[in-house]
Amino acid sequence: MAQGGKKKSDLIDKESWTPVYAQLAAVVRRRIADETYPPGSRLPAESALAKSFGVSPMTARQAIGVLAQEGLVRRVQGSGTFVRRIEVSKTSFTLGSMREVFADLENLEVKILKAAIEKPGGKAAQLLKTKEGDRLVAVERLIRHRGLPFAHQVAYARFDPTAPILEKMLDTSVLTEYIFEENHPGFKKGILELYPEVLDDRLAGLLGEEAGVCAFRLEHLFFDFNDRAAAFGAFVVSANRMRLTSRVGVWDG
Amino acid sequence: MAQGGKKKSDLIDKESWTPVYAQLAAVVRRRIADETYPPGSRLPAESALAKSFGVSPMTARQAIGVLAQEGLVRRVQGSGTFVRRIEVSKTSFTLGSMREVFADLENLEVKILKAAIEKPGGKAAQLLKTKEGDRLVAVERLIRHRGLPFAHQVAYARFDPTAPILEKMLDTSVLTEYIFEENHPGFKKGILELYPEVLDDRLAGLLGEEAGVCAFRLEHLFFDFNDRAAAFGAFVVSANRMRLTSRVGVWDG
DNA sequence: AAGTGGTCTAGACCACCTA
DNA sequence: AGGTGGTCTAGACCACTTT
Fold first, then answer.
1. Rounded Cα–Cα distance for residues B8 and A153 (Å)
2. What is the spatial distance between Cα A194 and Cα A96, in angstroms, rounded to a whole number?
3. Are A235 and B88 an interchain contact pair (Cβ–Cβ within 8 Å)?
4. Does the predicted model carry a pTM greater than 0.85?
5. Nucleotide nearest to A61 (CA to C1')
6. What tens digit of pLDDT does each residue of B134-178 get?
């Protein structure tokens, strides 16, 4: 059937509630999924997509941007946009289970195992660059979720009576605000490191696991707005309670 | 000094090589870093930023988009853009060390420990949904980098003489292409899971560690374009050789 | 009602890559 | 030289939130 004028796709519904760019992204994602655009191949130019779908160039660009964000395509300036192949080493993991648990405030319970002002020693003292005479606030907590132990935490901060951080650390009711939520005083930056760890007898007992079981250890070091290390700590979560999962490729096509 | 007309910022140099949006993003990032815009506060509206810096609204929007991408701010429709506080549970980790190692092809060395066609059994058979009579290709490799053992890998795939995956799996010279690089046949999607693990005697020996040392285990399951599980495997890398690090907050202000 | 971010237009010029 | 993605303009309308 010959049709005069511009050929506009009927795959894009501009009256729809879902944005045009999202619709276009979905169309292209689908075509990647069914190998219309196979791995390694070049996508039509953004300008071509814009023309054939009857949208503005910026809108088409935004659509491709979504796919690039998802890791499905790679843009190469001057050359084109290519369908990516899956690469293990380029994936990233989020602390999904941790986020879920700490978002579920009603079912969270925190038990303070220790709270003390100590002379500095060990890794915390090193990282917080304590000087002679400095004191550290040390807090040890057990975090339960739905009645089951979820995480063990130790946290250290330089003892500074003028800083609000001390109260925050000792107040169980605002624990979730201190680290996880939106109302803690605020740090400028932080660095996190994830380790595998074997639970010793004590930790295994606290976490309701058998000794020798494996766990994740998440260490955090936060800096205040003077770029001074201000707080250091570590969470230990048994591997049974925390899954680190990542999906790659096309999952909704 | 009174100045007539529009006030345009001298912080943005439109003749510069660095894009205007990146410059504007840097300015706002700096202001977050020095607490001109403290944690929790609202940023000036995108339109206001556009006006005061003499750029187009879309450009200002792009600049804020960079900061949102970095996790430094949160956009709330109808309300504004707010400076985020650091939250542990929202961070993500990338396999940085793995990527570095596998990008360094000249110093990679692969030793095949086992290559066989087996009757299915165990987790691999389960995940690959083998049927009666199916065979699995099983490959076990030791990956060395700069002369030192880096990772141990096992991989399974359904035995299908017509599929190119078999050759790929058995050919050491293209190992890096099979999983990590840009030239393997291509899967539609995959799921990865990261576990902590204790090295047993054999693995510890292979990886040059002492038994009982902790390691990361990265399991991968890939699906072909028919959504059929096609390949399953696992890497084990000692924690000494793989760091999982993440930075949050403002690091370049 | 006013202000905010979210989307979208219809162009433009540029740097870069490939042929 | 021609095509590609990268940037940018100067507006527009909308949905949503706040006042």
1. 49
2. 14
3. yes
4. yes
5. D5
6. 888 888 989 999 999 999 999 888 776 666 555 555 544 334 444
